[in-house]
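User: Can you predict the 3D structure for this chain?
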Amino acid sequence: MIKSIIFILPLMLHGYLFSQEAIPPPVTNNFQKATSYDELSTFINHLDKQSDLLKVEIAGQSVEGRNLYTLFFSSSEFAKDKSKIKVLIFAQQHGNEQSGKEGALMLASELLKPEYRYLFDKIDLVVVPQVNPDGSEMNKRRNANGKDLNRNHMILTEPETQTLHTLFNRYLFEVTLDVHEYSPYGESWKKYGYRKNADITLGSTTNTNISKNIRELSDNGYLPFILKYLSDSQFSSFTYSPGGPPGEEYIRHSTFDVNDGRQSFGIQNTFSFIQEGMNGKDDSIENLKRRAEGQMTGMRGLLEYVHGNKEKIKTLVWEERKKLLAFTPGQDISIQSVHVPSGKPLILPLLSYSTGKDTLVKVKDYRPLVRSLLDVQKPLGYLIPGDCTILVDWAKRQSFEQLPFKIDPGVQIGQYLITAIDSIDFEGDIVVDAQVTLNELKELPADKGFIYIPTAQLKGNLIILALEPRSMLGLVTYDKYASLLKTGQPFPVLRITKK
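Assistant: Here is the predicted structure, written as structure tokens:
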């Protein structure tokens, strides 16, 4: 009897009550169906009671009022130990991409086992297993408003993306991972005779305005590590390379836009990634067990890499963020870019439809690099008119720092005149390309009540990409803000620079 008490007591003190262990819904369902919102809620609430390592919060709600659960893992009070590195993993922005959610639930259960507790000596982790519960219940990509959440991070009109960014702003995570699925089953690939077949594909940040040092560590440090980690765990993997089939479309390394979950945090000089597992045919649960296990393994691999490289990543991120927080005169910001070749072909692993076997295909039109087409010098800040509701509301949603502004002899106020509205190709889509002249104003219009947004802040580069009228990633490329561009009219946003 005494021996039993001695054995049980340490487990209770550490919060591990194995008799009450919460089994992840995908396991209890034998991977025969996707986890429902109700099952997810029940599991998370049970998990919360299982360990002192975990605290569950409801960060917000979806369009239809479903909870957006956030799982805080820490061996101390979250974010109080400044020596630790903060990691954010979030899944299922797209409701028909189920394996990320299932893998995140499995990861949450796995991390409460004693053998993983060492991770939290260096890491404070938040897992958001389901960003889009409404879409998940319908097994549809978009949320209940019909919006693609992973194209909403610039304008932040949806409660789900607003919640995610409020969470990020609260803790300023140094590392983020956005978990998705890709579908290799398109008709064009069937006609080509091959399709992509990697269990997991992974991508780093590609926008050239993100710290070069962070991008180099991502590409030369983390990606080789995680590809080997997955291979050693018996999962096939490859660099995230959308596009194709070869001969019909070029293949690139994702987008350089900053309206998605990876680059919207990356543009704030975050060590940020996307992980894409393979979808089932017709968004089905086909092979869900392997898909979910692959996603979980990739997430766990990220934590292993961060744990082993905590000091390097944390120091680098904050060194590069300090550069955003201080104004550097003469800094160029790219507002138009293009994917270009590196001079080397891509050896792409594919599955042959005719033989059912893996094969390698040489892709000649491979464009892994991003080159700037148009730069602007970073201004001190922008003035948005207080009577322009759509801009004022957007700035509020983005939680930008705002400062008082007084006309100073050392600054110059510029206003663009829209001389013409053309178009430009952006990754196969046609977006507006304004032609402008920049004129100096000697005084401000008295009736506008301008709001000053400085660029010396964490989201400074995002602000520039959003508010420059020629930016191919700018607000003017969204229908809601298209009215800001009118030929022959001044652009309502003013540009503040040093003389």
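DSSP finds 13 helices and 20 strands in the chain. The first strand starts at residue 54 and ends at 61.
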